[in-house]
Specification:
Number of helices: 5
Number of strands: 18
Strand order of the largest sheet: 15-14-17-18
Shape: globular
Mean pLDDT: 89
Largest sheet: 4 strands, antiparallel
Distance between the termini: 24 Å
Low-confidence stretches: 233-238
Strand content: 15-25%
Radius of gyration: 20 Å
Structural class: alpha+beta
Length: about 300
C-alpha cells in the first residue's frame, strides 16, 4: 500500500508556520473544512495481493491482512508522514513531485511544496548532527542523516511513551522513497510488539489492529487531540509472539509473553519440521538454508513467519 495525504500550510490557527500538515489534521486544528470538494487523503492497495478480508485478525499464513494494511495507510493519511527525498547524495524536504510516484495519480492537485518540511519532519533528528529542519535543504548532510540508520523522533509525547528515549525512525543506508524517514524502525519495534503497526513491513499471516502507544504519542506531538480512551486496549495483542530481526542472518530473537515454558517448532516453506526447541530468548539459525520459515508455538495456535538470509 501507499498513501498520499492532501496538505495545507499556513492555515488559520496553524501551530507552526511554513510547515505542511496533512489536510485531515489541518481541518481538525482549524475546526473547518479547508479543502471542500477534495479528498483528505488517498491510498492505493495492490490488487494482486492475496488479501484476507476478515476483521478478526486470524489471518492465514499465506494471506495479508487487509485491515492491518488499511489502518497503517490511514495512519499516514492522518499525518504520520514526511516529505523526505534523496537523489544521489543529496537529501531534501519538500521537493517531492507527483511524478516521483508515477503511474499513481491523486484526484486532488499536488501541492507546490516549496522545500518546506512537514510537521512530522520537524521532529526528526540525528543523535550527532541534530534536527533535520536545521540542515541545509537540499544538502548532503541532510542526505547522510536520512540514510544513517540513526534517525530519532524527538517529540515530547513520543519520548514520554518510550521511557524518556527518542523513538527510532526507519532510516536505512539505502534510501527507499515512501518507506525511509516515515515509519518507526522495523528492528526496534518488530512484529509481535505493541508498536509494529507503523513500521514499514508486514508479513503474510500477520495482523495488528492497534495503533500502539508510540503511534498515538506521535499523533499528539504533530497536533492531534487524542480522546482519553483511544487505543487503551487490544487485549488479544498482548499475548502474541514475535521474532526479530526479520529477515535474520544468524540469531533470531523471540518475544514470548507467556509465563510458563512451551516448545516451538520451526518449519520450512514446504511445512516440513526443521527443528523443535524449548522456548528461549534467542535461536541460532546460522545452519538454516536461506528462505522462508514458520515458527509455531505449541499449545497457542500462534505462528510467526520469518526469512533467513
Amino acid at each position: 500500500g501507499i498513501t498520499f495525504p492532501n496538505g495545507r500550510k499556513d492555515f488559520p490557527s496553524a501551530p507552526v508556520p511554513q510547515t505542511w500538515y496533512a489536510t485531515a489534521l489541518a481541518n481538525a486544528i482549524a475546526g473547518t473544512e479547508l479543502n471542500p470538494g477534495e479528498n483528505d487523503f488517498e491510498f492505493f492497495l495492490n490488487s494482486s495481493t492475496d488479501w484476507y478480508y476478515g476483521t478478526d485478525g486470524a489471518t492465514p499464513d499465506e494471506q495479508h491482512d487487509l485491515v492491518s494494511i488499511a489502518l497503517h495507510e490511514m495512519g499516514h493519511g492522518l499525518g504520520f508522514v514526511g516529505l523526505s527525498k534523496k537523489e544521489g547524495g543529496t537529501g531534501s524536504l519538500g521537493l517531492l513531485l507527483q511524478s516521483d510516484f508515477a503511474p499513481l495519480v491523486t484526484s486532488f492537485p499536488w501541492p507546490q511544496l516549496d522545500t518546506l518540511p512537514g510537521i512530522f519532519d520537524r521532529f526528526l533528528a540525528h543523535p550527532q548532527t541534530g534536527p533535520l529542519e536545521l540542515m541545509e535543504n537540499p544538502g548532503t548532510a541532510l542526505g547522510s542523516a536520512m540514510t544513517s540508520n540513526q534517525l530519532r523522533f524527538n517529540g515530547a509525547f513520543a519520548m514520554d511513551a518510550n521511557g524518556g528515549i527518542e523513538p527510532r525512525i526507519y532510516s536505512p543506508s539505502v534510501f527507499a522513497l515512501g518507506s525511509s524517514c516515515v515509519h518507526l524502525n522495523e528492528s526496534t519495534y518488530p512484529e509481535g510488539t505493541p508498536n509494529e503497526l507503523m513500521t514499514p513491513f508486514s508479513s503474510a499471516g500477520s495482523a495488528n489492529h492497534w495503533p500502539g502507544p508510540l503511534c498515538l504519542a506521535i499523533m499528539r506531538d504533530i497536533g492531534w487531540t487524542i480522546a482519553p480512551d483511544v487505543g487503551l486496549a487490544e487485549h488479544s495483542h498482548h499475548d502474541r509472539i514475535g521474532v526479530y530481526p526479520n529477515p535474520v542472518i544468524d540469531r533470531l530473537n523471540l518475544l514470548v509473553p507467556f509465563q510458563h515454558t512451551r516448545t516451538a517448532t520451526i518449519m520450512d516453506a514446504m511445512g516440513r519440521t526443521v527443528e523443535t526447541i524449548g522456548i528461549i530468548n534467542s535461536i541460532d539459525v546460522c545452519l538454516l538454508a536461506p528462505g522462508s520459515y514458520t515458527l509455531r508455538v505449541e499449545g497457542t495456535g500462534q505462528v510467526v513467519r520469518f526469512m533467513k538470509q
